[in-house]
Specification:
The chain is built from 10 helices and 14 strands. By secondary structure, it is an alpha/beta fold. Helix 6 packs parallel to helix 8.
C-alpha cells in the first residue's frame, strides 16, 4: 500500500475523490486542488487509466517542514526513492512550486532535492555516481507555507493530454479535465442528448461522449510507471483490458455547432481520433440560429469570454444573443462556463446555481440553468 496524491483543477476535488474511491482508494482526504488516498499498484494503474479529472497520480515520498535549505535537504534525504528506482534509474526533479514559503528559488530547490536523493541512492547502491540510464522516476515537489511534499510521478505526460486533440489555431480551448469535470457536474448519462453551440475543438463533446460510452480517458496512452521494474507489467495489461470491457456498445446523441468552419472540421478530426466521431454531429451554425433539439437536451458550452478572443463589448453582445435564443430553458438544462463575471446580467437571467472553477489559472464560473 502506498500513500498517493492526485492534483486537479480547483473546484473538481469532489469529483476526483469519487474517482479515487471508485478505483479502490482508501483513507481519502481532500485539500485545495488535490486528493490524498491510499492504494496498491492496481489503484495506481486504475486511476491513471480511468480518472477523468486528475492531472496525475503521485506516490508520496515525504512530507516535512522545510523553512530553509538544510531542512529541505534532510527531508529529501529521508525520502525512500530507492524503494522504486533501481541502480540505473533516472530520478529527475522535474517540476515544483513554492507558495507562501521562505524558499522561493525553484532552481535552487530542485538542485537541493536532487542532491539529497542522489546521496540516498548512492548510499543504497554503494556508488558515488549513478548512471541514470534506465527508466525515469520523475520527482515533483510542492512547498506550501514552509511545508514540503515530495511525490514520485507515476503518470508522465499530464493526464489531461488524452491524445486525441491536435494542435490548431482555434483560440482558448478548454482543458480536457475541466471539460470532463463539467460533464460530471451536469450528470451526463448515456441516455442523454448533449449539445455544445460553441464547440471549438470539440473537447466538451468528446469528453461527454467518452463518459456516455464508458470509454476510460487513459485507454489509448502510456504512463511512466509502466516502465518501472518495481511494478508488475501484467497488472497494467489487466487494467487496460478491464477498461476495454467497460466500453458500452450503445448509441449516443451529441451535437456541436460553431461559426468557424475550421473549428467544425477540427472537432470532426479530434472526435475521429478519440473514436467517438460516429456519435457526434457537427455543423457550422451561428448562435443567432440556435434552436433547442426536439428531445430533452443538456447544453454544455464554453463561449468566448473577453480574454483572448473578443472585446468586452463584443462578449456582452454575444451573451445577450445567447439569452435571446436560449431563454427560457424549459425542459432542457444549460451549463455555461465563463470567466466573465457579468455573464448573468448580459444573458438576461440569474442562474439556478453557480460554481467557481478554474480553466488552468483562469478563474471562471459554471452557471447552471435547469
Amino acid at each position: 500500500m502506498y500513500r498517493l496524491v492526485s492534483p486537479c483543477l480547483f473546484g473538481l476535488e469532489k469529483t476526483l475523490a469519487f474517482e479515487a474511491k471508485r478505483a479502490g482508494g482508501t483513507e481519502l482526504s481532500v485539500a485545495d486542488g488535490r486528493v490524498f488516498f491510499s492504494g496498491g499498484a492496481e489503484v495506481i494503474a486504475r486511476m491513471n487509466i480511468t480518472s477523468s479529472v486528475a492531472e496525475r497520480v503521485g506516490i508520496v515520498l515525504g512530507e516535512f517542514d522545510a523553512p530553509d535549505f538544510d531542512s529541505l535537504f534532510e527531508g529529501a534525504l529521508s525520502s525512500p526513492i530507492e524503494q522504486f528506482a533501481g541502480r540505473d534509474g533516472a530520478f529527475p526533479v522535474v517540476k515544483g512550486h513554492s507558495v507562501s514559503s521562505r524558499l522561493t528559488s525553484i532552481p535552487a530547490i530542485q538542485r537541493t532535492v536532487k542532491k539529497a536523493l542522489a546521496k540516498r541512492m548512492g548510499q543504497k547502491y554503494g556508488a558515488e555516481t549513478l548512471p541514470e540510464t534506465g527508466a525515469e522516476y520523475p520527482v515533483h515537489f510542492l512547498i506550501q507555507k514552509d511545508r514540503a511534499l515530495l511525490t514520485l510521478d507515476t503518470t508522465g505526460t499530464s493526464l489531461h493530454k488524452r491524445g486525441y486533440r491536435e494542435k490548431s489555431s482555434v483560440e482558448a480551448p478548454i482543458r480536457e479535465t475541466l471539460a470532463a469535470g463539467i460533464v460530471d457536474l451536469a450528470h451526463v448519462r448515456g441516455s442523454d442528448t448533449v449539445c455544445d453551440p460553441f464547440c471549438g475543438s470539440g473537447t466538451v463533446l468528446i469528453e461527454a461522449a467518452m463518459k456516455m460510452l464508458g470509454i476510460a480517458p487513459g485507454m489509448n496512452r502510456s504512463f511512466a510507471a509502466q516502465q518501472w521494474e518495481c511494478f508488475d507489467k501484467g497488472l497494467w495489461k489487466d487494467e487496460f483490458a478491464a477498461a476495454g470491457e467497460r466500453v458500452k456498445n450503445e448509441d449516443a446523441a451529441l451535437f456541436g455547432y460553431d461559426l468557424d468552419p475550421a473549428a467544425v472540421e477540427l472537432t470532426k478530426r479530434n472526435a475521429k481520433k478519440a473514436g467517438v466521431d460516429k456519435f457526434i454531429r457537427v455543423e457550422k451554425r451561428d448562435i443567432r440560429d440556435f434552436v433547442y433539439p426536439a428531445e430533452k437536451c443538456k447544453i454544455i458550452t464554453n463561449p468566448p469570454y473577453a480574454k483572448r478572443m473578443l472585446t468586452e463589448g463584443q462578449t456582452d453582445e454575444l451573451y445577450r444573443i445567447m439569452g435571446e435564443r436560449m431563454l427560457p430553458v424549459g425542459e432542457h438544462s444549460l451549463y455555461v462556463i465563463t470567466g466573465r463575471e457579468s455573464f448573468q446580467e448580459s444573458f438576461g437571467a440569474k442562474a439556478d446555481k453557480e460554481r467557481k472553477l478554474y480553466n488552468g489559472m483562469m478563474k471562471c464560473r459554471l452557471y447552471s440553468y435547469r
